[in-house]
Amino acid sequence: MGRDKSIRIHLLFLLVVTAVFIWSFIQPEGYLIWTMEVLPAVAVLIIVIAAYNKFRLTTLSYIIIANLSIAMFIGAHYTYSKVPLFNWIKDYFDLNRNHYDRFGHFLKGLFAITLSFALAIGTLYEIIEWLASIISKCGKALGTQGDFWDAQRDMSLTLIGSIIVLLILSKLHNKLLIKKDFSID
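== Membrane protein ==
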């Protein structure tokens, strides 16, 4: 892929992610929880944008970052336990809870660069949820929805997603890295 074409594609990703970010900000479930849930994605996006000219990633990496950011912005807008599509799935299949947070953990696993990085990020999220529940004195962690084993199930889905991506995308990503010209004009 030519350099100019890849830059245009990267800008398109940025435009889509920015549009979803703006949408997520408009009347979210709550602005405090929205801020807490979008902050990690915004921090990553700021770093990636700041480093773009000096350290360009592959287009596959930008696709991954864009998808994860969008998933986080959607979860932040509704809160993870109230995403409408997953409420419909919950009702249709007579499930006990909305599984968007587990879907998010699975995506983190799918899109993580390495297994250990994915598990570290997943663990950090679980610790943040636990600390938030202690600080807010609500008595139960934010994303558990009454499930005592929520953190373990979330981490398992992160692990499964990571293993799947390592098996499926490693060779593709390595080919993209070999083809990539790392010089900056």
